[in-house]
Amino acid sequence: PAHHRGKNKAAAELADHARIRIAMNRNPTLALRNDSFRCSFATQAFHWVTALLVLAAYVVSKSDGNSLYSANADALRRIHETLGALVYIIVLLRLLHGPGNHPQATRPRPRWMNAALKIVKFAIFSLLIAIPTTGVLGTWFAGIPITLIGFDMAPPFAPLQRIGQLVMEIHESLGEILLWVAGAHAVAALI
């Protein structure tokens, strides 16, 4: 009868809503891949570990009024460079995890918002690769070894001081740009 079909449809819709609510509220700690409602635990961990490492590297770089390359700042330089190396490793692992590994929107977004999301995501990942790379190259071009906690890596080529200074200025500018882009990303996530 027709009235049973209406009841079955209503029951199916209730069941669908219940499955959606369960999926939205389930504990994501065991999920290694994203579902349609939220990022997986792994993706969230990559995100927040990266954010904390970047923030810590920035704070350490600004904590001494002198250059990180002064003799007085050796310990801070080691910490800063180790944090930068960890950022690089975490970002590479995140990219291996899946650059497109993000949840689908639970409601449609305007095209401009999807475009902005892609541009900001590309900018952040590009900066997270470029900043440690320019840091290493600028340091080596300046003739200074990379000083990680536990060991040093000597420059593999002869110093070119002016190029080293230029690359380090680029490194610092990219760091500032990353903070602004990440700040805009954070504000957009809250809206």
What does this protein look like?
There is one protein chain. The protein is mostly helical and 191 residues long. Helix content is 69%, strand content 3%. The chain has helices at residues 2-25, 41-62, 74-97, 111-141, 161-190; strands spanning 146-148, 151-153. A two-stranded antiparallel ribbon has the order 1-2. β1 (146-148) and β2 form a beta hairpin. α2 runs antiparallel to α3 and α3 crosses α4. The protein is elongated and about 75 Å long. 18% of the residues are buried.
Largest sheet: 2 strands, antiparallel
Number of helices: 5
What's the N-to-C terminus distance?
Answer: 48 Å
Enumerate the spans where pLDDT stays under 50 for 5 or more consecutive residues. Answer: none
- Following the backbone from N to C, one meets helices and strands in this order, namely HHHHEEH
- What is the arithmetic mean of pLDDT? 81
- How much beta, percentage-wise? under 5%
User: Share of helix among residues?
Assistant: 55-70%
- Widest β-sheet, arrangement of strands: 1-2
